[in-house]
Amino acid sequence: MPSSRKLLTGVVAGVVLVAALGWAVSTRLRSPADEAARRAAPKPSLVTAAVERRKLVSTVVVSGTLEYGSPLPISLAGAVGGTSEQQRVTRAPRRGRLAEGAVLMEVNGRPVFALRGTVPMHRTMTPGTKGDDVEQVQRALGRLGHRVPVSGVFDRATIAAVTKLYEKKGYEAQQPTLTDRQTYDTLRKAVQTAQETLATEKKTLDEGRDVLPLKLKLTNARADLRTARTMLEEAGARELTPEDDAKLAAADAAERAAEERLLEAEQTLEAATARPTVAPEATASSSTTPAPVPTPQQSTDTSLLEMKVANARADLAAARETRERALDEAREGRTAKLRELRKAVRAAQEAVVTAEQALRQARHLSPTRLKVANAGKDLAAARSMLAEFARSYGVTVPPGEVVFLPKLPARVRKTSIKAGQTVENDVATVTGSTFMVTGSVETAEAELLREGMRATIEPDTGRTYPATLTAFGEKARLPGKVVPPAGSQPIVITPGSSKGLKALAGGAVTARVTVGATEDPVLVVPVAAVVTSADGKARVRVEYATDRTKDVEVRTGLTADGNVEVTGALKEGDRVVVGVA
Asked: Compositional bias of type Basic and acidic residues: which residue ranges (predicted)?
């Protein structure tokens, strides 16, 4: 029995071994048909993407640098101080914030102030200087707390305010130099000398000729002329003399009295004509008795009254004629009086001219006359030169002691000079106190941009900062910036706030400018899913079963980040074909 079992076990093991060898050999050996089928490419299948519903935002990405905005190189407009000695820096500009009225630097121990303005400093401001640059200084002084009228003239009030500005910063306003003081004193002494010379020559002339009677005659003639002119002016201003006024008043009174008598006579005549005369006994009779008929005697009673009226009228006409005659006489008298006074003025004028001529002729007889004339000319010239120099004499503002900047406060970003060096070119570069991102975009993308578009700044910290597109193209070209390569345009993006950006200044950042966005969620598909047919209509292929599709016509909208807005017979979750794999 044991041997039988061993035999059975060996047989089974042999069968298993043979079967294993057969399977191994069969896996290694294939027919040519099997080999060809194994090497053939798999059946193609569709690559699809789901239709989504979401908001779509289209952006232009900018790689740029975050820095302080509006870089502006600064140079001095001229000498600092009132001398022409070498301009050597005694305190260089310092990097950091620069406020209005601050001292930017020192040259030869003198300050250079920073003030706000767009007109550059270009000359020395002296007393009496006028212009827009002076008006800028006055407005800056007002912002700094100094009361000064904005007149555009460098006047006393402006000089006082400038002096206080210097004193507040520990300096003295530029006073006249030693050369200026010497020149002023020389001109003043020249005037005094000319006055003394003229007085001496006049005295010599007067002592050499007895011209006193002629001077007195001229003085009296001028006094007579003034009196004649005064009388003429008074007579011209007065229409009538007091005597004429009295005559006209009497004539007016006589005329009014004649008018009263005429009126009284006319009223009496009218009353007599309207009511006939009746005998006394008729009045006492019965009211039924017929009115008596006037007799001839009664009719003649009004003739006297009529005569009185006629006489009164004649008296009134005579009174009026008398008044007109008095008025005519007054006018003729005034005309004659004015004629006499004008004649008197002419006579006085002739007397003055005659006296002046006589005095001149008397003085011409002396050789000293020429000396007096020359001394007078010398005095006038000396006074003119002194007045001209005095107009610009006093406290001044040298051209190099003020730097006008368009915006303040600003920041000194770069200093171009050190203490001990001489001033030749730019001394520093300032920027605005706000940040900006500068970069460039392709010209095709720039066509999508508009100033004022919203943007976001994305530094490496992971935070985002809201910003605004403020300039692109030619408007974004800044001095000192590298010109972007051909096919690109510069761009400037301004953050909405500077909070949190100070530590990032000078670093590279990414900015995204929003050029379009949907207000509400819309259906979107990959751009690759949209195909434009020969008829010009856009379509997508929708998979409705495994590897089975249908064309659906759509209308496209906003495109962003490889997706496009579509409308048509689609719904969220549909699968659209984007390729074949």
From this structure: 235-264
